[in-house]
Amino acid sequence: MEGPFARFQGHEQVVFGNDEETGLRCIVAMHSTKLGPALGGTRFYPYDSEDEALTDVLRLSRAMSYKAACAGLDLGGGKAVIIGDPAELRTEALLRAYGRVIESLGGRYVTACDVGTTPADMAVVRRETRWATGAEEVHGGSGDSGVLTAYGVYLGMKAAAQAAFGTDALGGRHVAVQGLGKVGARLVGHLVDEGAKVTAADVSTAACEKVASLPGVEIVDVEDVLLVDADIVSPNALGAVLDAGTIPQLQARVVCGGANNQLATEEDGDHLADRGVLYAPDFVVNAGGLINVSDELEPGGYSAARAHQRADAIPATLHEIIAESRTQGVSTERAAITVAERRMASVGGLRRIWLP
Questions:
Q1: Is the domain of 13 the same as that of 131?
Q2: How far apart are CA 158 and CA 148, in angstroms?
Q3: Any known ligand binding at 301?
Q4: Domain shared by 131 and 152, yes or no
Q5: Active-site entry in 34, 67, 79, 158
Q6: Residue 205 falls within a domain, yes or no?
């Protein structure tokens, strides 16, 4: 596809929402509903332009399709962005107006938390729509999905270590963690519990202070953390941190983190492979949050034990992808996309059998 619509290739539907009275400007992108409704979080962020916001939501929604497929969920991929600074624009009126935009899509898109949104926000959004997950438990949701996301990244890191070093033990390993938010800080906790040495960084001084006193943790500048001489680097902030500038400087043998879209381009996965760096595809290892909120859609409602059990399958999926990568001679990123698209085609194709 060429021309002005080329960037939308593969997306089923993209919706722009606007409400002047509340200041709401949002974009909802549904990449695929082959496996089920498109589920993905809402990012509330002060983008420099609507074009930048559109680029982000299209990339994120595509990754959500692959994330759901690799996690074995009967869900498609979607994502939404609200344009603006949540510290300035977050109001009940805006969130409820956003909820009405979601409701207008009739269940094709189900939202949840992401950067800039919280379980408390989802509780407000769901006052206007049935299709909001991840609200506070007191409001019937599953709460903070960052807990299971961090756990899944930790399990994925152990699986990547097994493939790279011959053992999944992280005790004594040196792990560099970029980003100490809802996922990164909890990941550091898991690593410290296992006896890993951790070098960590975040733009927030307060976030750094929360982990600085843990045994084996050293704090460095954000610009330096991914380039330290560590066994594993773990991006857990915003995406596109692995590019032509950073990849040649990496000293670690494994990259495994919770941030979405860590690769600036798909070709950067090839560049990592060329350097002998094992990349754990982000949409595989960070699926714990999606698994957590998706469980709210199960008959009978949310079960923490069931969600946890599903997250326990992340290492097996990553091992399958690494094996596919080695067999086909391609990067783990390309292998993961192949595994995801294979399931989307085979299981999603069952819709050709009509059901009354």
A1: yes
A2: 15
A3: no
A4: no
A5: 79
A6: yes
Q: Which of 139, 169, 185 is the last residue of a domain?
A: 139
pLDDT in tens, 22-68: 999 999 999 999 999 999 999 999 999 999 999 999 999 999 999 99
The average pLDDT across 223-235 equals 97
In angstroms, the CA 193 to CA 237 distance is: 22
179 is annotated as contributing to ligand binding? yes
**Quick one: which of 230, 204, 227, 200 has its CA closest to 212?**
200
197 is catalytic: no
Q: pTM, whole model, 2 decimals?
A: 0.93
53 and 109 both lie in a single domain = yes
* 181 has binding-site annotation: yes
Token pair in block for residue 290: 């999606």
CATH number of 38's domain: 3.40.50.10860
**pLDDT grade, residue 354 (50/70/90)?**
low
pLDDT for 265-283, tens place per residue?
999 999 999 999 999 999 9
Q: Which of 350, 296, 332 is nearest to 136 (CA)?
A: 296
Domain span at 205: 146-287+315-342
Residue 210 known to bind ligand: no
pLDDT tens-digit series, residues 185-215: 999 999 999 999 999 999 999 999 999 999 9
